[in-house]
Amino acid sequence: MALLQANKDLISKGMKEFNILLDQQIFPNPSIPEEAMVTIVDDWVNFYINYYRTQVVGEQQEQERALQELRQELNTLSAPFLAKYRAFLKSL
Questions:
Q1: What one-character-per-residue DSSP string does 36-78 give?
Q2: Would you say the C-alpha torsion 9, 43, 73, 1 has a positive or negative sign?
Q3: What are 24-46's pLDDT values in tens digits?
Q4: Domains and CATH numbers, the chain
Q5: Can you give the pTM of this predicted structure?
Q6: Which of these, 1, 24, 63, 87, is most buried using a 10 Å CB contact count?
Q7: Which domain of life is it from (predicted)?
Q8: Among the ranges given (24-28, 34-38, 64-68, 76-80), the one the predictor scored with the smallest mean pLDDT
Q9: What's the rounded Cα separation, in Å, for the pair 62 and 41?
């Protein structure tokens, strides 16, 4: 079963907003451990999921699938950011 278009639009919007958040980040000086940055990014993902939880539409199963897809997409977007942070830490 395909996602409802309204949910697809929300996922797209959430991905765009999350990407903007990641692009705005300046790595801290002094740096924080990689594990702390992973925790921060996980918290951001959870924040976005909780924010969009109230906006997804459809039956419960549809809503859960949309939120699961959003989580997967946000995790995918965060992977290059975390790799960039790891490279930053190695350069210190």
A1: HHHHHHHHHHHHHHHHHHTT--SSHHHHHHHHHHHHHHHHHHH
A2: negative
A3: 999 988 899 999 999 999 999 99
A4: 1-13+33-91 (1.20.58.420)
A5: 0.92
A6: 63
A7: Eukaryota
A8: 24-28
A9: 26
